[in-house]
Amino acid sequence: MSERLRAYAISLIVAGLVASPLFGAFAGDSFPISTYPMFASERPAEMSFPHAIVVDADGDKRPAPPSAVATDEVIQALSTLRQAIRDGDEATQSLCERIAERVADGDAVEIRIVTSTFHTIDYFDGAQEPLARTVHTSCEVPR
């Protein structure tokens, strides 16, 4: 009987710990008990992020692939763009020229490093034109 009682007690304690974030028992994010703030906290309606745009001869625009910016890793490409913008005009121009060299074999004629602001919900509803766009630099793609 005491083993059964011990098993019930342990089960209740574990269930209570797992459910405790629902009742606000833990304000922070700590393993293994978490309120999952990265998913549960409120996000802004508008978000801005830097990216590189490839412009072709017809004027059509498309995002530069992460591999043209830095590596195949999206976060690494984003960090590279943020750092170049933070470092100023010379750094963004240098990065623009490196991207242009990497996309030179296609139909691209210009690279633009920009920061675009999007409405997050509308973007996923199909309104993918930015609300605002700041062009940090642009450069021609070598032929």
- What structural class do helix, strand and pairing data support? alpha+beta
Shape: elongated
Name the helix and strand elements from N-terminus to C-terminus, one letter apiece: HHEEHHHEHE
Overall mean pLDDT stands at: 88
Q: Strand portion, in percent?
A: 15-25%
Radius of gyration in whole Å, from Cα?
24 Å
Counting structural domains, the number is 2
Largest sheet: 4 strands, antiparallel
Helix content: 40-55%
Count of helical regions: 6
Terminal CA distance reads 83 Å
The count of DSSP E runs of length 2 or more, i.e. the number of strands, is: 4
Poorly predicted sequence stretches spanning 5 or more consecutive residues = none
Read across the widest sheet, the strand sequence of neighbours is 2-1-3-4
Task: Give structural notes.
The protein is α+β, with helices and mostly antiparallel strands. The chain has helices at residues 2-19, 37-40, 66-69, 74-87, 89-102, 120-124; strands spanning 46-56, 61-63, 108-119, 132-140. Strands 2-1-3-4 form a four-stranded antiparallel β-sheet. Strand 1 (46-56) and strand 2 form a beta hairpin. Helix 4 (74-87) runs antiparallel to helix 5 (89-102). The mean pLDDT is 88.
